[in-house]
Amino acid sequence: MNAKNITDFVGNTPLVEATNIINKKNVRLFLKLEGHNPGGSVKDRAAYYMISEALKKNNIKKGDTLVEATSGNTGIALALMAKVLGLNMVLVMPEHATIERVKTMRAYGAEVILTPSEIGMEGAIDHALELKYKKGYFRLNQFDNLDNPKAHYSTTGPEIWRDTDGEITHFVSAMGTTGTITGVSDYLKEKNKDITIVGVQPKEGVRIPGIRKWPEEYLPAIFKREKIDKILEVNQEEAKAMTIRLAREEGIFSGMSSGGAVASALKLAETLDEGIIVAIICDRGDRYLSSDIFV
């Protein structure tokens, strides 16, 4: 019997070509379906890597309690990975998160603490930090933890390079913690320095789950602006419309951060004479059914 642990199925997600939403001669768009990870999002990679590396370094041991602030997908991934690896997980998130995400975290056995919407993600981070010092919990700190981008340098980047036969010309990713885009950039630039790395962030005042424009004092330490060649901004209407189009025209069910990334990838495609674009589809749409995206 060649049985495997659930963590063996993190990564090696499908790369599929968009066939209906793009119509630009000599430009092809490929979508990396991160919803096929066990926990349903790209965050499985960083969650597994951060926890397993902390265990290897003896920063934590089985039975310890971890704490982390999250807007959703990271929390689900951490809840899953922590329990599988023998740890307790406390997650702090703004109360406006969809109920599907909260229930999924609790289903995996995590304690979920909801903070007021008006203090946003920054307030959740502050509360997680308070718990770290008051209760002695170990804070993974996905925003500053170098094992976050290393997960993508070690897995996501190599997979994209392999599955495009090294022909990728542009990589597009929504920016949240910035771990995905930073790690993938490191790997792809080593392979071909001419690959263009494109980050996607919301326009000023726009709220899109999974995409952030950070205040300077909360900017993730793992974020390296020099690793990103271009930043495109997207509004909520564009992201929502593309999320719906992905489901109806490509059969790809995802959240709005993915819609924002693909909307930006199509804008990019219009500026190119030729190219191979890869965009990240961060997660699955089933964790957003209680929102107003799919009505």
Question: What's the structural blueprint in terms of helices and strands?
Answer:
Layout: E1 15-17, E2 27-33, H1 43-56, E3 65-69, H2 73-84, E4 88-94, H3 99-107, E5 111-115, H4 120-135, E6 138-139, H5 147-163, E7 170-174, H6 179-191, E8 196-202, E9 230-234, H7 236-250, H8 256-270, E10 275-281
Parallel strand pairs: 2-10, 3-4, 3-6, 4-5, 7-8, 7-10, 8-9
Antiparallel strand pairs: 1-2
Task: Sum up the structure in keywords.
295 residues, alpha/beta, Rossmann fold, six-stranded mixed beta sheet, four-stranded parallel beta sheet, 18% strand
Short description:
With 295 residues, this protein is an alpha/beta fold.
Explain this structure to me?
One of its GO terms (molecular function) is cysteine synthase activity. Pfam families: PALP. One of its GO terms (biological process) is cysteine biosynthetic process from serine. Residues 6-283 form the Tryptophan synthase beta chain-like PALP domain. By secondary structure, the chain is an alpha/beta fold. The protein has 2 domains: 6-36 and 156-288, Rossmann fold (3-Layer(aba) Sandwich); 43-139, 3-Layer(aba) Sandwich (Rossmann fold), CATH 3.40.50.1100. The protein has helices spanning 43-56, 73-84, 99-107, 120-135, 147-163, 179-191, 236-250, 256-270, and strands at residues 15-17, 27-33, 65-69, 88-94, 111-115, 138-139, 170-174, 196-202, 230-234, 275-281. Helix 3 (99-107) links the parallel strand 4 and strand 5. It is globular.
